[in-house]
Amino acid sequence: MQLDRTHVVVRPRSNSELCDLTLLLMRQYCIPLCVAFLAGVLPLALMNAALIGWLPIEAELEGIGDDETFAWRSEYLFLMASLIFLEAPLAGVFATLYIGQAVFEQRPTWRQVARDAWATWHRWVWKLGVLRGPVPAVLLLVWTWSLGDADGLAVFFMMLLLMYVGTLRAFRPHTPEILLLERCPLRRGATGAVTYSHRSHLFHTPVAGDSVNRFVTMLLLSGMLTVSLFFAMIFLQGVFAQRWSFNIVAQLVYVPAAMWIVAGYTVLFRFLCYLDNRIRLEGWDVELGLRAEVQRQFGDPQSQQPAPGVGG
Asked: How many domains are contained in the chain?
């Protein structure tokens, strides 16, 4: 691995440059990133469909009034957007592991990606799956549906959960990178490695303002991209199938598809923000150049370890 040869030029960037670079990365690694992201998305998408997919189906079958149909559709859209927002970091585990190595002009094998994910599964399942909201959201919906007519209760508690998780994501956005790429343990072991909490505090505190700014920027951009993608799908449906309505297929397929595509974009954007913060805070570009020269001159005694700052 040549540490000073990367597909991403290692330098500080503005938010607009990071957004543009995200699109370039999506084009450069289109197929492998699609495979990696789909591996994380498919089980979650099927679970979401089982949890709330019955809302538009029941509205269509019962043929209820326009006002009630609008309310049911609004509830479905809100709950689907909330679930995907909470699940996006969890769904992007394989994509994050892949791109963390691919930027160093190294194409990791799927076996290597799966092995790296398995080696730290207890960390990211706990942090990204439990503490960051997906598991509590699923349990919340199961509980509210078991109560019967408790749609308003589900929306209320979901809003509270979104406020809590949104605050965490705004001030501590790079939990996936710290857990998956730097592999920081949750607790200090015999090796004395830097723990996740300590690393997160050192990394996030100096860039808290920039992190919140980027979170709000990406939140607004994600909304616009999702609407654009959805209406593009509706347009194609109208052109080829002569159906321009917001039908059941649009609700069950187009809506989550547009949201998940944008979620994949946010995963890559977050990764590039992580690299940008490391450059600004730690002089990561200089470190890579120095370590690459040492590697060429004296060999790499840690050649079996992950790349510095990305995998270790």
From this structure: 1
